[in-house]
Amino acid sequence: MSSESERTIDCPEERRIVVGVDGSPTSRRALRWALDQARLTGAVLEAVTCWIYPTMYGVVTLRPESRCDREAGRTLARAVAEVAGVRPPVAVRQSVLLGHAAEELLARAHGADLLVLGGSRGRQAFAGASAGPVDRYCLNHARCPVVVVPGPGC
């Protein structure tokens, strides 16, 4: 039996919504939706952008990751500033990750309350489809609820 001083008080975990942002108008719509949902639920919003090494043939570049990482960070910061403004209604964290978007978003969404994505038809569009390859992968493998916010015209 433990004494009163040894007991721990269970604190509720932080509510968290993860949203993928690539700077496109559709991802901005998803960011806006996620921001509204975070405000309604009292969750922290984590805006995530991902990048991979550019494919180059016959060209050697020195440390392209720093340039790519900075550009991805600027794109994310612009999108967050445009959608959330200078005083967002909730805490907004920004994460720039190196890796494939679907895998990185799923890893970041582990333990989150919600993963929000912008619907993208990709190159293989057909009537009625609104989920692109990243969306479909996340929908099939996520361990939390996923919302796909449709893009314009979907």
Biggest sheet: strands side by side, in what order?
3-2-1-4-5
* Unreliable segments of 5+ consecutive residues: 1-11, 122-129
Mean pLDDT score: 83
Given the structure, what is the number of helices?
4
Strand composition percent: 15-25%
Query: What is the overall shape?
Result: globular
Give me the secondary-structure category.
alpha/beta
Distance between the first and last residues' Cα: 60 Å
Range of helix content: 25-40%
List the keywords:
154 residues, alpha/beta, 36% helix
Structure description:
Helices cover 36% and strands 19% of the residues. It contains four helices and five strands; from the N terminus they run βαβαβαβαβ. It has a five-stranded parallel sheet, with helices on both faces.
